[in-house]
Amino acid sequence: MTAALRLGRHTVSPPVVLAPMAGVTNAPFRALCREFGPGLVYVNEMVMATALVRGNTRTQRMVTFGADESPRSLQLYGSDPVMMGEAAARLADNDIVDHIDINFGCPAAKVTRRGGGAAVPLKRNLLRAILRETVHNAKGIPVTCKFRMGVTDDLMTYLDTGTIAAEEGVAWVALHARTAEQHYAGLARWDAIAELKRSVPGMQVLGNGDIWDARDALRMIEHTGCDGVIVGRGCLGRPWLFRDLVDAFNGRALADPPPLGFVLDIMLRHARSLVDFSFPGKGIREFRKHTGWYLTGYPVGGEVRRRAAQADTIEQLQELFAGLDPDMTVVPDGERAKRGHTNGPIRVVLPEGYLDALEDLTPPDDDEVAALSGG
User: Fold this and answer.
1) Beta bridge partners of 43
2) Residue 106 is among the residues annotated as catalytic for this protein
3) Shared-domain flag, residues 64 and 195
4) Is the pTM of this model over 0.85?
5) 321-347: per-residue pLDDT in tens?
6) Which are the contacts of 44, defined by CB distance < 8 A and separation ≥ 6?
7) What is the model's pLDDT at position 360?
8) Per-residue pLDDT, 374
9) 167 & 24 share domain
10) Which DSSP helix (H) or strand (E) runs through 229?
């Protein structure tokens, strides 16, 4: 199976996109992924439009791309059409990105209780205004958007969102086939991806949810008819998943899961690159959360996992890894073990009276909302 996505002047083949994940899809992780799957779309972690416009130092550091990175993809979060337009213009005028994705899927309570994230599509007029301002001010840079099925099963929005996005000129829409209430629990409902694809003929539709190995991506496309896939939690601790995806889409046999020695080498490279990328002392702390994901499925024992997750230096990791068997193999189905968030369902909190004023164009106040991973 071979296919391609269109993204402005870029052709993406096979049609695979890395989902933006806060604290994960920074420049070092994307560089590792590109080694295994060159030519795909690897989206930077989400940044707030307001923080970008106001020149927030931390946000400016997050907008970092490798010299060889193409396309340069960034996800924006924001609920104020004017601020989203200004952020898009800044990115375009300074030639910072080749692709802007918009987050309409964040289910976090601190976001939805202010009317942001997954709550935005409930207000169709506001949604349209955000998309229109962003597309117009992006000045030819392709804009895409990612969203969930809705807030709850009684407040579904994904079909309207897809239609509005198509009318406002986005390059593709991506559906995480869960509701905000579902969070990350249960199975993604791939039938919703198929329904969205049918409802917006001519629009590129990408599916997201429960792609744990390369075969899942092929099954999703066969089941839904979608044009491409977005991979999130499945690649945590497994940047080589993108090699498998390229092989699967090109009809090649998949490689066996790597031995532990291979994984440990990648872990050390990842840790070193984060140390070089981050502020002094921060990089190794940033890497700690990755250790459990990398070691998932390998029977190394709880003490090794604990020590890896508490390492303060590269040298401590090296010393720990030196005592492990590099030929150790993953347990059966270990590579399909779930990584990242698994909790849910959750109670979705909306602003008081939000459902009584869905035609209102007043945006929520983004100033106090921290950047969170969406989708």
Assistant:
1) 73
2) yes
3) yes
4) yes
5) 999 999 999 999 999 999 999 999 999
6) 20, 25, 26, 27, 30, 62, 63, 64, 65, 72, 73, 74, 75
7) 86
8) 41
9) yes
10) strand 228-231
Nearest of 195, 262, 258, 267 to residue 225 by alpha carbon: 195
Which DSSP letter does residue 369 get? Answer: P
Q: 85 vs 58, 130, 131, 143, 288, CA distance in Å?
A: 21, 8, 9, 12, 36
Whether residues 207 and 267 share a domain: the answer is: no
In the DSSP assignment, the letter for residue 141 is -
**Which DSSP string corresponds to 256-309?**
PPPPHHHHHHHHHHHHHHHHHHSSTTTHHHHHHHHHHHHHTTS---HHHHHHHH
Q: What is the C-alpha to C-alpha distance for residues 165 and 129, in angstroms, rounded to an integer?
A: 10
CB 98 within 8 A of CB 71: yes
Q: Residue 306: CB partners within 8 Å, gap ≥ 6?
A: none
Residue numbers of the chain with a pLDDT score lower than 70: 1-2, 280, 365-375
The verdict on residue 83 lying in a domain is yes
Contact by Cβ (8 Å): 195, 205: no
User: So what's the pLDDT on residue 64?
Assistant: 92
CATH of the domain at 99: 3.20.20.70
Contact 330, 257 (CB under 8 A): yes
Please state, in angstroms and rounded to a whole number, the distance separating the CA atoms of residues 371 and 280. Answer: 22
The catalytically annotated residue of 33, 106, 145, 226 is 106
**What radius of gyration, in Å, describes the C-alpha atoms of the chain?**
20
Residues 182 and 235 in one domain: yes
- Identify whether residues 73 and 124 lie together within a single domain: yes
Q: Which neighbouring-strand residues pair with 7?
A: 10
Place of tokens 């918009």: 102
How far is it, in rounded angstroms, from Cα 289 to Cα 240?
A: 18
Which residue range(s) make up the domain with 174? 5-254+346-356
pLDDT for residue 372: 46
Q: Report the C-alpha gap between 144 and 248 in whole angstroms.
A: 25
On whether both 225 and 322 belong to a single domain, the answer is no
How many domains, the chain? 2
Residue 145 — φ and ψ, nearest 5°? Answer: -145, 150
Q: Which residues, 6+ apart, have CB-to-CB distance to 319 below 8 Å?
A: none
Q: Are residues 227 and 313 in the same domain?
A: no
Q: Are 156 and 149 in contact (CB under 8 A)?
A: yes
Are residues 136 and 152 part of one domain?
yes
